Amino acid sequence: MSHRQNDFSRGSIPRNIMNLAIPMTAAQLVNVLYSVVDRIYLGHLPGGDSLALTGLGVTMPIVSILMGFANLCGTGGAPLCSISRGRGDDQEAERVMGNAFVLLLILGVAGTAFFLALKEPILYLFGASPGTFPYADGYMTIYLCGTLFVMISLGMNPFINAQGFGRVGMMTVLLGAAVNIALDPVLIFVLHMGVRGAALATVFSQGLSAAWVLAFLTGKKAILRLKGENLRLDGTRTKKIISLGLSGFFVNMTNSLVQVVCNATLQNYGGDTYVGVMTIINSIREVFIMPVQGLTNGSQPVEGYNYGAGQYSRVREAIRFTVGLTVAYSALFWVCAMLFPAALIHIFKSDPVIIEAGVPALRIYFSMFLFMSLQFAGQATFVGLGRAKQSVFFSLLRKAVVNAPLTLILPIWMGTTGVFAAEAVSQLIGGLACFTTMYLTLYRPLGRLRDGGPAA
Fold first, then answer.
1. Is residue 25 situated within a structural domain?
2. So what's the pLDDT on residue 327?
3. Minimal CA–CA distance to 277: which of 61, 53, 63?
4. Any idea what the Cα angle at residue 101 is, between residues 97 and 103, rounded to 5°?
5. Is residue 3 part of a domain?
6. Nearest Cα residue to 79 out of 162, 161, 169, 170
7. Under a CB-based contact definition with an 8 Å cutoff, are residues 443 and 316 in contact?
8. 3 backbone φψ class: left, alpha, beta (φ>0; ψ -120 to 50)
9. Which residues in 402-426 are b (16+ Cβ under 10 Å) and which e?
């Protein structure tokens, strides 16, 4: 029965994708509220607490690294589960999920210990100043104590979505986000806990989400269950998870690298004001790319299942649908960013100095966002079909090879403008390179294969 349930080799490809993508998009959008709502509240704190938003921005690279460990397990294991399900091998899919869970726990404990031990020098390295460090330290200390909750919630939820239970995966995020949004104003303003209250609300809400995920994956409704017999690491299986998961991992790691380089460079050329501007721009970016990520994540189980089942024409149809919808949405966001930058910044901060510096910076930063959508689509296809090397390469290319060096070089001549221009250039180069490679090495070769035949 489990082979017939949520069988993506049947029915409409767009419908199959959207049945997953809509709840996953809603979940992604709500998930952003964990951190974005914190920044909105902290950005409007009165008096000396006006530096709280900037201090929170300094912690973002650490949060991104921890999320990278969760992605290493989730985006590495979930596509392998989809491919195994498409082949009719549910036992192997469960073994993959069990190995991913154990790996997640190991990385979570190691990451928590590392950052707690070295948080002060790391925060200063990541762009903190004497004025913003107390806020960054207060938030990070509490957040790190709940790292395992965050990682279980983010790292194991893809295994729910990979089984076709998009609505259940959405509830994972909705549950935590609702609690977080309710607790934030109480802890931040009523109890006057400031950044510590924001961190405590996040940890508590993620704990509830983690409990929800584990309850479902060990319950009777799941097709693939988390079982004790599969909680023993296997070298070959773990290597496959890590190899494929390196794509999602490097996305977060390179995001963290660029955030560190940007914060440090902006602190040097523009001070706390421009670090605050970058914090706001990153927050806007997170909100607006979530629908794209929800769509591309929703396409991966469909692509992987059909690839495992040998339905190559359906894989190509899924790729076409995902690319078209991703580009159309990104074009709408680009128009909003170009026409209404001040209104977007006002959501987080009403300081005239921040708005004056932020409007041109935001327009430059998002000027090539349309090309970035091509990278999202291409990257999703590589991951969904288990192509680890390509997905890792393009994760590194845009951020580590193009963006980070340009962030250091361009400000020599362009000042703070060079930091935002570096992002635009990397979006153009990374998007075109990733999509072109996916088209030539996957999409076209799949067109030469007969459905039901062996893969190339």
1. yes
2. 92
3. 53
4. 115
5. no
6. 162
7. yes
8. alpha
9. bbbebbeebbeeeebbbbbbbbbbb
Q: Are 129 and 272 in contact (CB under 8 A)?
A: yes
- Over 70: is that where the pLDDT of 47 sits? no
Q: Where are the alpha helices (DSSP H) in 87-192?
A: 90-125, 133-145, 147-162, 166-185
118: number of Cβ within 10 Å = 11
Distance from C-alpha of 183 to C-alpha of 191, rounded to nearest angstrom: 10
Domain assignment of residue 453, yes or no: no
374 Cβ neighbours under 8 A, 6+ residues apart = 323, 326, 327, 431, 432, 434, 435
Alpha-carbon distance 113 to 109, whole Å? 6
* Among candidate residues 156, 173, 165, the one with its CA nearest the CA of residue 72: 156
Angle between helices 147-162 and 13-43 (to 10 degrees): 160
What tokens appear for 208 in the block?
């509830």
The gap from C-alpha 91 to its chain's centroid, in whole angstroms, comes to: 28
Q: Does some domain include residue 455?
A: no
Asked if residue 53 lies in contact with residue 348, where contact means CB atoms within 8 angstroms, the answer is yes
Are 215 and 360 a contacting pair, CB within 8 Å? no
Alpha carbons 376 and 379: distance in angstroms, whole number: 5
- Domain count within the chain: 1
Q: What is the pLDDT of residues 187-210, one digit of tens each?
A: 888 888 888 888 898 899 889 989
Q: At what angle do helices 388-396 and 369-384 cross, to 10 degrees?
A: 150
Cα separation, 46 vs 56, whole angstroms? 16
DSSP code of 228? G
Residue 295 · residue 325 · CB < 8 Å: yes
Per the document, the length of the chain is 456
pLDDT at 48: 47
pLDDT greater at residue 7 or residue 158: 158
Place of tokens 């349309």: 370
CB half-sphere exposure, 445, CA atoms < 13 A: 9
The 3-state DSSP class for residue 58 equals helix
Element (H, E) at 374: helix 369-384
Q: Is 178 exposed, middle or buried (0-12, 13-18, 19+ CB in 10 A)?
A: middle
Q: Contact, 195 vs 54, CB < 8 A?
A: no
Cα gap 418→409, rounded to integer Å: 8
Q: Residue 74 is part of which domain span?
A: 13-447
| Residue 148 tokens, joined | 């395992």
Spatial distance between the Cα atoms of 361 and 277, rounded to a whole number of angstroms: 8
Q: What is the pTM of this model?
A: 0.70
